[in-house]
Amino acid sequence: xxxxWDPDTPIYIQLYQxxxxxxxxGYIIEGEAxxxxxxxxxxxxxxxxxxxxAYQMLQDENIVEKQxxxxxxxxxxxxxxxxxxxxxxxxxxxWPKIVEQINRLKxxxxxxxxxxxxxx
Length: 120
Description:
The protein is mainly α. It contains five helices and two strands, in the order H-H-H-E-E-H-H.
């Protein structure tokens, strides 16, 4: 998780987004426990209430579930749910702006695919 926080976004939202990203990228796997509130608070020098708010958002969306006496665990099948949600968000929010910029700059398909081909 970052040690630099975006001052324009509440930290609990950034923590929530970080957990989602880590699940999506496979750093946190389904069935795995999240670090405890106390551990995260100590490691990043944050108020435990901040971490609790982020974790509560994850519980509210059924991304994680609380196991009494054990902690919070990532639910099975949520990686696909997060992936589909992120794809939908990208295609409806970010992609139209990107397409507009591509058209404005008169970029061709070859211009766009060249960096991908060079990276291979």
